[in-house]
User: Fold these one by one.
Assistant:
Number 1:
Amino acid sequence: MQKTAIVTGITGQDGAYLAQLLLAKNYKVYGTARRSSVDNMQRLKHLGIGDQVEVIGMELMEPSNIQSVIAAIKPDEFYNLAAQSFVAASFEQPLYTAEVDALAVTRILESLRLSSPKTRFYQASTSEMFGQVRAIPQNEDTPFHPRSPYAVAKLYAHHITINYRESYGMYACSGILFNHESPLRGSEFVTRKITRGLAAIKCGKQDRIELGNMDAKRDWGFAGDYVAGMWSMLQQKEADDYVLATGDTHTVREFAVLAAKHLGVNLEWRGEGVNETGIDSATGKVWIAINPKYYRPAEVNLLIGDPSKAKTKLNWNPSVRFEQLVQMMMEADLAAEEKNTEKKTTNMAA
Ligand code: NDP
Ligand code: GDP
């Protein structure tokens, strides 16, 4: 029989890649989205699956909405990917972040417990929960020390997921995923901000990029690999929690240097702290400058994951390494920017 899955956050990066994977496995995919006044199905369309996902309205702040969707569909699998996912925004909107990233997860689990207890549940947890890290690298046993309202909310969601598994025997998993990116990554996240910004500078549309902490280190992988891990977590004999990561870490500065290299630009660094600039060594032009407004009230300086458990138990392996990821994102943004320029030139000529 055809399996059914509900994926919350279908308009987001992971929602799109996961839907693509589930459709390829012949699932009936219900994607939930909150109401929007604009067409926000761009990512699904980009992957060519815009008309294959059944999109249904679901606002995570609305318990009755969640309850009625779950009671009507009673899916085999439920992937909770929806969240206020941007760490910086969580400092501005801590209560909203707690509602959507923490309490909403209990709303979903309660609805599943009451209406569809056999549904297998995946919670999108995050390496941000490790925060001020207590061990290097971080694995499933590393103690947590969250450093943002986002991470605190996600930690609640992580524990409530485990609690429902232990209390009610529900098949509920928490995937502790390290940063994963792609050409579909939200444009405010640092990787995409860099690749889009560099492409725009290259095409003469933007003067420079302003960034914050260049020393932060992240374990960056490819989103397509990570959604495969989510699916695997729900196919096991018993529910459990897993870290997904590459085991490799790089600074924001290293990401920028490598991305610029793909444009044939050799970035050199001058100055320190807020006065640091990334300069094209051939022309002396400043491409990257620091704006302290991008510093965070509390920072996560270093993340590097140990995915041994997922490798052994799920047979999960990330296929895209850092260098390929940077290249994939840089090439996609350059191609999009060049296409844009072409379109404008043609329109002007017409
Ligand atoms: P995105 O920000 O791309 O997507 C988030 C999704 O959540 C969007 O579809 C958004 O809808 C939806 N959403 C936000 N608020 C609400 C709400 N109140 N009601 C209903 N839907 C809402 O995130 P990603 O795809 O990158 O991440 C997926 C999940 O994984 C998130 O929970 C994130 O926190 C977590 N995660 C991500 C990591 C990463 O590196 N990408 C790392 C670890 C965890 P809209 O389009 O309307 O805004
Ligand atoms: P996060 O790991 O979920 O917070 O993902 P981000 O991509 O938002 O940030 C990764 C790291 O890049 C953090 O340590 C940020 O402080 C750092 N960073 C430096 N400059 C910027 C910037 O301009 N925007 C963002 N989003 N992050 C930045």
Number 2:
Amino acid sequence: MTLFRRYALLLALAALALASTPLVAQSSGVAMTPPMGWNSWNHFHRNVTDAVIRAEADAMVKSGMRDAGYTYINIDDTWEGERDAQGNIQTNSKFPDMKALADYVHSKGLKLGIYSSPGAKTCAGFEGSLGHEEQDARTYAAWGIDYLKYDLCGLRVQMRAAGSHEAAHKVMVDAYVKMRDALRSTGRPMVYSLCQYGVDDVWEWGASVGGNLWRTTGDINDTYERMADIGFNQIGIGQYAGPGHWNDPDMLEVGNGGMTADEYKTHMSLWAILAAPLLAGNDLATMTPETLAILTNRDVIAVDQDKLGKQGDRIDADGAVEIWAKPLADGSKAVGIFNRQTTPQTAHVDFGRAGFTGAVKARDLWLHKDLGSISSPYNVTVPAHGVVMLRVWQ
Ligand code: GLA
């Protein structure tokens, strides 16, 4: 083959590779497993400050959470200030120097996330990115931001004005594409988190507008009822999740005080089976050893972060007992046995429902104990609002 022909062949192959690359994430190579980190909203709401972020980054390292896989420190709404004369977004007085803060977070081996809205205003009424998308993306990149949560909120004004459902949908999709392209053109890899509460079945199109993750529901709160209502309803959408693009049933409430330890274990287990982003939402600087143990259960984290990237689903339900399973890269399966009742229940688990024949081997992921060989029906007592979580193989 002549040099020219070889060159032409290489070019053709490269063009083919580019053409066949699905336009999924805004930047490839990020969020290949569900993002893990911390976000300010669930605990601090409007009270997030530069000092809070530094303290949480410190605690993330000191507690061992970074070593367990938690990487992103995400500033949610209320950091935004006014725009300057050139239209550049500035921080408000709570964040004196965002670049210095990013440098600090990076010096801890962590990454920094930020928040905005495609509308003129954010949910909390601060400055949004409408009409300033490229400029804002460039600012984020210059600051050293690694993650953007882009929250629909203010754009609803434009969506309502659009006249029809189709037109409103187009306004929303165009806005998400616009910021995807703006982020891409900075050349800095940033995780792109869509927050629009599941509107128009976002799981069907979230990846095509560059989302690395997309919220599937309205906001979580620190009650078992709300957490369970969100988590146990994530049925049948696993096919839309995979490396680089994940369903997001919202951030964790573990450690915020509104649930029992068993309920928080349910929260953590269910989110892991759902291959959900694990964004802690508590105060890491003051958390109890019990909270830390739940958040850093490595067996459960391994289920969430499994390389296969398959979201789990419900495989059986008997009254208040639900069995959920998630296929894992090594051929084993994570099996969550959940009790949604307020009294302990005995579950009768048929591993046939999870695709196994005959006896299986199992490990209890909360007791950190190998159970040896067990067979169906596996009768096990599950605490009120609690979970027994197994890894099962043959
Ligand atoms: C919305 C989002 C929350 C949080 C707030 C901030 O409600 O869903 O996660 O970001 O806005 O204002």
